[in-house]
Sequence to fold (261 residues):
Amino acid sequence: MAVKVGVFGAAGRMGATVCRAVADDPGLELAAAVDPGAAGEKLRTVAGVDSDLEVAGRPEHLLEHPEVMVDFTHLEAARHNLAWCAERGVHAVVGTTGFTEEDLERFRSTFTSSNCLIAPNFAIGAILMMRFAELAAPWFDTAEVIELHHDAKVDSPSGTAMRTVERMAAASDRWADDPTTTHTVPGARGGVGPAGIHIHAVRMRGMVAHQEVLLGATGQTLSIRHDSYDRSSFMPGVVLAATRIAELPGVTVGLDVLLDL
Ligand code: NAP
Fold:
């Protein structure tokens, strides 16, 4: 039986792509769409998907609850949507970025009758990039992360950059000090993440989502780069998560567990 899936943010850039991926997957059924900006409109019109569903303005307006809701919205909206999922025993697959540690704690205490998977990046290549950076971390003294995104991204640094640096910081505590003493232009060295690893956020028209992890040791550097050229790059990960979320009790952060990494 196909898993019934609903989409929060169904008219958004990611949400509309998710609607099409869910509709195209034989193991999933597109059962609901929520987006306040497109309330009452046909999903066919707003997401270009072969479906007769009408977009609901709020999850409270859904007549039937899907087994899984996928959320690619904005931070405040996602907080509300996840509370709704937890209260109703609906599994949540979440791509929205920017959650704090307090958010995660709250989700851990509220998702008791359904499961929640939050992944800062659903692109399988990006998950491998994070894993490779974590494996490389103990072998290098210096590292910096450059994340590059489209010019409509409102938060920085990206959730992927933060997660990468957190994992590298946890993998090694032997990072060299930053030698910079003079900042002619404030911020030129980027933001300082966990373990003092610098993160640089680029926002540029024409880009989608890209990241380069640079690691350096005496006489050598290693560059690990991932590029998402199109939002479809995230869809195999989203479909995998929606298909298997029922197997992952509580709150899971990252898709790694489903890739056996
Ligand atoms: P977007 O185009 O702005 O889409 C967000 C959509 O959510 C909009 O249509 C918005 O409607 C809608 N929305 C707002 N409040 C809502 C609510 N309460 N319930 C349901 N829908 C609501 O943004 P995007 O580029 O798709 O990105 C969305 C999120 O996904 C961001 O946090 C981004 O960082 C993240 N992201 C994650 C990944 C990953 O792999 N994890 C990949 C790409 C992007 P209005 O426009 O009317 O407000």
The domain at 124-228 is CATH 3.30.360.10 (Dihydrodipicolinate Reductase; domain 2).
